[in-house]
Design brief:
Strand order of the largest sheet: 7-6-5-8-9
Number of domains: 2
CATH topology of the largest domain: Rossmann fold
Number of strands: 9
Protein name: ABC transporter substrate-binding protein
Helix content: 40-55%
Strand content: 5-15%
Distance between the termini: 53 Å
Oligomer: single chain
Number of helices: 11
Pfam families: Peripla_BP_2
Keywords: Signal
Radius of gyration: 22 Å
Domain Fe/B12 periplasmic-binding: 23-281
CATH class of the largest domain: Alpha Beta
Order of helices and strands: HEHEHEHEHHEEHEHEHHEH
InterPro entries: ABC_Transporter_SBP, ABC_transptr_periplasmic_BD
CATH superfamily of the largest domain: Nitrogenase molybdenum iron protein domain
Structural class: alpha/beta
Length: 289
Amino acid sequence: MKAKLSALILGVVLSTLLQAQQRIISAGGAMTELLYALGVGGQLVAVDTSSIYPESASKLPKIGYHRSLSLEGVISLKPTLLLGSAEMGPPNVIQQLQSLNINVQQLPTAVTITALEKRITEVAKLVSKEPQGQALLAGIRANQQQLAKQLKAVKKPLKGVFLVQPGGRSPMVAGTGTSANTLMALAGILNPAATSVKGYRQLASESLIAMAPEVIIVPDHMFKNSSSLATLIAQQPGLIQTPAAKNNRVITVDSSLLVGGVGPRVVEAAQKLAAEAYPDLHSAIVKVP
């Protein structure tokens, strides 16, 4: 009996030491954010270029973009665990890393709260942080329930469009299957583009006018460097005929929220967005620092 107990304790100790010595590479902004939230940011030896939150992640060595990893670059960092999404690649590099006995884990990146909860549970187990994972889940669920309860006071939900502008090109609207659409839904904002657009797509002015958004939401980086609603209208003239533009109703959100799928900050971000979209409820909606 004593021998079995000793062996069990030794196994636990060795497992703990092994986990503590893990050299983790994170390929994906939302994954990196999750690892920091679980308290294992100190075990990260590198991240991909989409990992821009928290700030300390941006100071780590980079392995390129998560869809086009360099085999030599990853190997040189001697990782024991590579975490990323199902989109991580290219496939031949992933296969070669696995053949070298590197633990490569690709997790689904569906942009739903249910998928996020599943991802938190799985990643917490992989890095031996199950209690921290449970605490993170509890916080997300509590905030989501509280926000949903507060939004019941909204009699007429706003219609909004979420615009992004990759590489300075013409603005694109967010439809279904996007982190932006999930964020809007959590914040109680109707997305008319979700009925006809999947992913991100440029729209003709007529389509945008027909949607009649009452609020325009953009990543905050779009309104830096002296850019403004006027700049946006110059690139998408149809905007000027929307109620949102006529009433100058534009809300910015943290750009890092949209990188790599839905991360653990999404409900807090939805609280902030809802508070700005529905100023009459502002005092009732939890203020997030």
